[in-house]
Fold this sequence. Notes:
The protein contains five helices and four strands; from the N terminus they run H-H-E-E-E-E-H-H-H. By secondary structure, it is of the alpha+beta class. The protein has one domain (3-146). A four-stranded mixed sheet has the order 1-2-4-3. The chain is globular, with a radius of gyration of 18 Å. It starts with a helix and ends with a helix. The relative contact order is 0.11.
Amino acid sequence: MGLNSHLFAIYINKTNNMDKFKNFLLYIWQLPQNLLGLIMLLFMKPYVSKENYKGITYVISKKMSGGISLGNYVILSNKYKSKNVSHKTWDHEYGHTRDSRLFGPLYLIVIGLPSIIWAWMYGTIIKPTQNGYYKFYTEKRADRLGGVER
């Protein structure tokens, strides 16, 4: 191995270590929602499927009725199991993940709780309209950050 190859290998190793360190800090920054996500995963077993999409763990469960994004974990209903068919839902939840990364420990208060309350109210108290669900600020942000057009 030549000197240039050796230096490149050292650079790659340092880059990988830096990425691991950044991911660790990001996980800690989102710790409240990451812990809640891990707890929810325990109750969602058995999984229909589990995969990594855009660096996030997506779990499909028959026990879930919709979708929820908690830090590095997204749990979706079985009806969204095909990301090719349900790419808007997968990307919408990724948008919530981006908000989680931005707000860190404030995410559950600023985005998570209002989003869950809105999801409950919509269709229960508020009459559904076409795409009306996505007009609420938390859902509109998730669409924008996830690159979803409605």
